[in-house]
Write a sequence for this structure.
């Protein structure tokens, strides 16, 4: 019987540590529900001790997920473990993931602890976590650069203290597949009591080997892979769940393992995470990049037309994409639109459907054909909008190669119209300056990304911005066929988030 490999998704913890990414509670729970639909076994919902906001988000995820186990990361510190448990205790399957560094360089320069002190702390804190829950995972941070004999002792100590999952991290993405596979074999052969527990791996992608190292680990006996959607994470990121799963599926003849992932949810999951984090997927990204199933070379096109498997080792349908989309345009009716949403995997309430249909018809009046990605952009933009303290009423832009760009902005707050004008180094800069003047709420624009949702001159423009206000980061999202309008919507979206948290919440409104 084929061995089943489990998946722990850490998009909401390690993935959120991607520089510039900050998810609110609503966004985290939405991703968690989609991860549940994807079929992951465990969701690492966050690092609860980090902040009050992270604690509340972990708690919300734990209480919203039905099928997956939910864990929180915790240092080998009592307060961390207490906080982690408080956050996950209402989950159907709660767990605590505690860790301590074991490499010489980490113990000397970061922990400033001796080997004996690390062993003692491991024993105490794993046992302490075990008082709360049966599911305790223990990680030896920087395991791949730790001395083997000491690493074996640490893992034996964790087993004796009650850990049921031992995690072997390649924390800085240093190792190679052959080395990492041997490390897993060595642990299985030299750690006493290893047969009582499971082994997981957590590989970083600093040398581009995270997926390869993860696969090498399970070939050599690891039971679970920790990974993230789109490979998000610290520095160069983590092993990408979509690449691991499709490697197992496509090369089932080689690996021979099973898993519980519904691969037809991969594309939807990837798009959701990309939109909410504001991190665009590179076009040539394996599995989920827009070029993953595209063919431009004449030789390739000829081969694929004759037989798809000449250049496609997996099908778009296998990850939830469609080869042929129903053409959607201004003549499409509500029934066709509702069918299209069902085909895309979205279930909307009647009110949500009505609102989405109105926006679809508005877009259809501007475009000849509305593509699947256009509809998805509309839905995601609406689903994760924020309470609009300030609403866009209208705007007017004056710009040219020999003119100073000027924007006049009309925003509505309650029933009051605020009108301001501003100049800038181009129409977008002028528009954003005018928004700030209307709100009297200056912010620092840290990041601005723009992309076409689909191809063609009438393509929808998608804009993601990241702003800083009072030391906090806020992400905004906007879509429109007018790229200036999309920029205004994204900036206003971020500004409303910041205003709600920093002004309204502070004033108790």
């Amino acid at each position: 019987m084929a061995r089943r490999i489990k998946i722990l998704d850490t998009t909401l913890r390690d993935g959120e540590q991607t520089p510039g990414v900050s998810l609110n509670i609503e966004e985290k729970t939405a991703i968690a529900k989609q991860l549940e639909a994807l079929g992951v076994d465990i969701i690492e919902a966050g690092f609860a001790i980090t902040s009050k906001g992270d604690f509340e988000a972990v708690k919300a995820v734990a209480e919203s997920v039905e099928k997956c186990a939910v864990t929180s990361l915790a240092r080998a510190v009592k307060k961390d473990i207490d906080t982690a448990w408080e956050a996950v205790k209402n989950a159907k399957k709660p767990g605590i993931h505690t860790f301590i560094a074991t490499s010489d360089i980490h113990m000397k320069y970061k922990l400033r602890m001796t080997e004996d002190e690390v062993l003692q702390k491991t024993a105490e804190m794993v046992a302490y976590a075990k008082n709360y829950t049966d599911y305790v995972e223990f990680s030896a941070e920087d395991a791949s650069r730790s001395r083997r004999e000491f690493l074996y002792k640490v893992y034996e100590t964790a087993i004796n203290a009650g850990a049921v999952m031992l995690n072997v991290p390649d924390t800085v993405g240093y190792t190679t597949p052959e080395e990492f596979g041997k490390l897993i074999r060595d642990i299985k052969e030299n750690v006493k009591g290893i047969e009582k527990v499971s082994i997981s791996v957590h590989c970083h992608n600093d040398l581009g080997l995270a997926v390869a190292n993860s696969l090498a680990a399970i070939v050599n006996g690891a039971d679970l892979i920790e990974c993230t959607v789109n490979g998000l994470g610290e520095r160069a990121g983590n092993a990408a769940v979509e690449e691991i799963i499709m490697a197992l599926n496509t090369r089932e003849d080689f690996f021979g393992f099973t898993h519980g992932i519904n691969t037809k949810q991969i594309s939807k999951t990837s798009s959701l995470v990309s939109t909410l984090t504001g991190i665009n997927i590179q076009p040539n990204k394996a599995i989920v990049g827009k070029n993953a199933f595209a063919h431009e070379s004449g030789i390739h096109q000829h081969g694929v037309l004759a037989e798809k498997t000449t250049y496609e080792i997996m099908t778009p349908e296998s990850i939830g994409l469609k080869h042929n989309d129903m053409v959607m345009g201004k003549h499409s009716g509500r029934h066709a639109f509702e069918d299209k949403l069902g085909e895309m995997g979205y279930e909307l309430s009647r009110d949500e459907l009505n609102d989405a249909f109105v926006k679809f018809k508005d877009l259809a009046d501007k475009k000849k054909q509305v593509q699947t990605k256009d509809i998805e952009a509309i839905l995601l933009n609406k689903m994760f909008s924020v309470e609009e303290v300030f609403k866009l009423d209208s705007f007017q832009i004056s710009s040219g190669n020999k003119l100073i760009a000027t924007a006049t902005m009309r925003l509505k707050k309650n029933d009051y119209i605020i009108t301001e004008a501003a100049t800038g180094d181009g129409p977008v800069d002028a528009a954003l300056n005018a928004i700030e003047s209307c709100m009297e709420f200056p912010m620092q624009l840290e990041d601005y990304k723009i992309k076409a949702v689909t191809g063609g001159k009438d393509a929808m423009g998608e804009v993601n911005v990241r702003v800083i206000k009072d030391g906090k980061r806020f992400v905004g999202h906007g879509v429109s066929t007018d790229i200036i309008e999309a920029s205004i919507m994204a900036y206003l979206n971020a500004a409303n988030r910041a205003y709600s948290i920093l002004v309204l919440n502070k004033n108790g409104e």
Residues 31 and 273 are 7 Å apart (CA to CA). The longest helix spans residues 483-507. The longest strand covers residues 403-413.
